[in-house]
Design brief:
CATH superfamily: Glycoside hydrolase/deacetylase
CATH architecture: Alpha-Beta Barrel
Protein name: 5-oxoprolinase subunit A
Function: Catalyzes the cleavage of 5-oxoproline to form L-glutamate coupled to the hydrolysis of ATP to ADP and inorganic phosphate.
Helix content: 25-40%
Number of strands: 10
Radius of gyration: 17 Å
InterPro entries: Glyco_hydro/deAcase_b/a-brl, LamB/YcsF/PxpA-like
Strand content: 15-25%
Structural class: alpha/beta
Largest sheet: 7 strands, parallel, barrel
Number of helices: 9
Shape: globular
Keywords: ATP-binding, Hydrolase, Nucleotide-binding
Order of helices and strands: EHEHEHEHHEHEHEEEHEH
Distance between the termini: 10 Å
CATH class: Alpha Beta
EC number: 3.5.2.9
Length: 259
Amino acid sequence: MDIDLNSDLGESFGAWRMGDDTAMLDVVSSANVACGFHAGDPAGILATLRGAAERGVTVGAHVAYPDLAGFGRRHMDMASSDLRAAVIYQIGALQGLAAAAGTRVRYVKPHGALYNVIAHDERQAQDVIAAICAIDPSLALVVLAGSPLTAWARAAGLRTVAEAFADRGYRADGSLVPRSQPGAVLHDPAAVATRMAQLVREGTVTANDGSTVRIDAESICVHGDSPGAVAMARALRERLTADGVGVRSFMDAEEGVAA
């Protein structure tokens, strides 16, 4: 049994530091690297990509709305032409930096508000899908497990990767608890590790109302910007290893690369 662990990295900006990319890259198997629209500056992004290349961590483009002030967490009703161009621009920029770092971009994971919007909004979802197909249709798309986005992306020929969140609360319908509500972000490493062990073993998580929700996921995200993120990721990986679960990139799993 294997599972991918991913984290949002490359999000520091100038003197403003976000997370500990070096430590997190020693734990995760996939890195969602910021592309400069919600966070990240070129030098910091390049350093993160080099760290990923050194450790054999798979790299994905963490594309977002152009929202540095709001860290990409504010909904934007962008015109289709603007959104498609923005996604192409971000992927292309990261591909260039990745090549310089000795690695390559293998997948796309939208960030923040864009991620949540395209999980259910078909118009913006199709814009993101069209952008990926235009620049590199071999890229996989990370999607919220159980969301309509999965079918839309597959219909366009994209490979999808269903994702669960280690440090986010779930509602009874399988959606994430909004960050504005209590219980949206979880902070106890041991509790999170136990919760994700249940996910891998049984394919379920406990929702915020106590109900059991079915989540079929190939990858688990630990947010790099959460307090204690590295400790949480380490606790999760240690628990999975103790349970006999291998941690490797979903791209390696697809290609049959040994863990």
